[in-house]
Design goal:
The chain is an alpha/beta fold. It is built from 14 helices and 13 strands. The longest helix has 17 residues, at 250-266.
Length: 342
């Protein structure tokens, strides 16, 4: 472990720069992946075919130095193909446990919504409890464990919508958009001379020990009571919105706060501001809510509704009152606690 990379900002910068040496224009996606990694979360990447969803996941795995396994999700995939099963050994006349590909640090579940809901559910225990039960035996997963699932938009042929319980296990849903003109031209120039450029061409720039230490730093980030109330008001608005059949759960409330702390940390702050909350609201909440019938008939999207809610709920005004003699009020509406690291 290096002391510098135990700092979330330095860790994020190192990973982002390494990934950027292959792909261009995915800074927000890498930020979201880093936020999830530092808060023990999982990420759903959505985008049309060809926007490099799987490549982004593999590049992130390579840059973080984590052991990775890729599972191609197909309609005929069985839950045991993910978690593992007991296999009879003729040589010994006994059954032995055959662990599945989920037993690793980072699982890339490619095109997860092409698998059946039954197979998708094989991830539930792993994502929530950090363990897998095989024929009555519960086995622990690594302390650093993360699922990055990719999916095509649900309107595309051959896809299954993820069950509500499955969606709720993903801390963030990030949309990989088509690149703008400048980024696409830069991408062509980069791959013109090196068409085989890919995840094998980048190095691990952080270690598992760096990630564990950076996670501890994130837990120390201060969240003022006014920011907690702001998060709660946004969550409450999703539950009260006539455009939504149901809103975000208490799990979403806690994950919302945790992701805001991680974003603050990777931007070099040890306190959360309202901009952290605003930046993450759609990614944390849009996939957890269900549209009302009227909203569906009006072709509204969950992201549009969350965006409207964030615009409607007033952010904390003025400076919050310090919570202790050691606290100092920042100019951007957050309260900073002196941690001796300045």
């Amino acid at each position: 472990m290096t002391k510098e990379l135990a700092n979330p900002k330095a860790l994020y910068s190192a990973v982002s720069d390494e990934v950027d040496s292959v792909l261009i224009g995915n800074e927000q996606i890498i930020e979201g992946l880093t936020v999830a990694l530092l808060t023990r979360g999982h990420v759903l990447l959505e985008g049309v075919p060809g926007v490099a969803k799987t490549t982004i996941a593999n590049l992130f795995a390579s840059a973080t130095g984590l052991d990775v396994s890729r599972i191609q999700m197909t309609p005929d995939l069985l839950p045991a193909d993910v978690t593992g099963t007991s296999v009879y050994r003729e040589q010994t006349g006994e059954f032995s446990l055959q662990r599945g590909p989920i037993f690793t640090n980072l699982v890339v579940a490619d095109e997860i919504n092409r698998a059946t809901p039954k197979t998708q559910s094989a991830f539930l225990e792993a994502m929530q409890e950090g363990s897998v039960t095989i024929e009555g035996e519960t086995l622990s997963l690594p302390s650093v464990f993360m699922v990055i699932a990719t999916q095509n938009p649900i309107e595309m042929e051959g896809t299954h919508g993820l069950p509500e319980a499955q969606r709720d296990r993903f801390q963030l849903k990030l949309t990989v958009d088509l690149p703008d003109e400048e980024s696409e031209i830069a991408l062509m120039n980069r791959f013109d001379g090196t068409p085989e450029l890919g995840p094998n061409d980048i190095s691990a720039v952080v270690s598992e020990e760096d990630i564990t230490a950076a996670r501890e730093t994130v837990t120390e980030v201060y969240v003022d009571e006014s920011i907690k109330s702001y998060i709660r008001e946004i969550i409450a608005a999703t539950r009260e919105s006539p455009a939504l059949e149901y809103g975000a759960s208490p799990r979403a409330t806690l994950l919302f706060m945790q992701t805001a702390k991680a974003r603050a940390a990777i931007h070099g702050r040890d306190y959360v501001i309202s901009d952290d909350v605003k930046a993450l609201a759609e990614s944390v909440l849009a996939h957890r809510v269900a549209l009302s019938t009227d909203a569906e008939l009006s072709d509204q999207s969950a992201r549009e509704i969350i965006e409207e809610i964030v615009e409607t709920v007033a952010a904390p005004g003025g400076d919050p009152e310090p919570q202790s003699p050691e606290a100092t009020v920042s100019s951007d509406g957050g309260t900073r606690v002196s941690s001796g690291r300045e």
